[in-house]
Amino acid sequence: MHEARWFKELPVDGIQRIQRVAGGDVNQAYQVETASKKYFLLNQPGQTAAFYDNEVEGLRAMHQAGVRVPEVIGQGELDGTAYLLLEFLAESYQGDHHALGEMVARLHAAQSPTGKYGFNTDYRGSAIAFSNAWTDTWPALFLNQRMDPLAEALVQKGLWSQTDYNLYLKVREVMERDLMQHQSKPGLLHGDLWSGNYMFLTDGSPALFDPASFYGDREFDLAITTVFGGFSPAFYEAYCDNYPLEPDYSYRLPFYRLYLLMVHLLKFGNSYRQSVEHEQERILAGEAYTI
């Protein structure tokens, strides 16, 4: 980053300081300070401004659904680097998990304006991109536009053998059969709802950030919350009080847990191989995962 030009070109006046901060495994992140305000800046070298289209559209859709998210201040490209400038949210390490569950239920209750599954923008990440082209059914989006590209990428990267891929095809048959029998609704999803993507503000209220949004089956988001922990019983209780789950939901959660573990296998390598295999075994055995 050529700081002098960034001081001049970012769409806020009076920048006094730009400081590198932690920002996850996808983006470079900075705190931008003026005399009166702070902002949060994400950078992605070698990308155009369009790299952040999905995140921007997701944040706007979530805001319209009544979810607290950081406001988008600006999006663009500078020196061959895509950037996204966001409202800075001051964080507290304690907050209302019940309110978080209510907020996620409110998010999922926002239904697709087209009645279809997908989104207006595709997902672009550091390890893989996913199409969000509109589909008539949930299995068409989840299996054809998420799981199949993931499986093929794992083979291409040498992380899966043909034997591994053949096992995936057996697991896929089970998922397709079960999902075709399930009555999904295309609700607005965060798309990457692990504990690192929610926070509590200084008044204890919750906020969500860093979405990979699309309209899909809400069980997808809920399964993601279970993989690495960080969501309390109060969260799940409040969610189910506001938006009850289907009685057989627990037999489908492993499908989406497998998705996230396959993403991590692709990004971080064989340290996730055993977890992927365990989740595949769970699906083939018809075992449930209950929240």
TrEMBL record:
Protein name in UniProt: Fructosamine kinase
Keywords: Kinase, Transferase
GO terms, molecular function: kinase activity
InterPro entries named among the record's database cross-references: Fructo-/Ketosamine-3-kinase (IPR016477), Kinase-like_dom_sf (IPR011009)
Keyword Transferase in record: yes
UniProt feature coiled coil, ranges: none
Domain of life: Bacteria
Pfam families referenced in this protein's UniProt entry, alphabetically: Fructosamin_kin
Family to which the UniProt record says this protein belongs: Belongs to the fructosamine kinase family.
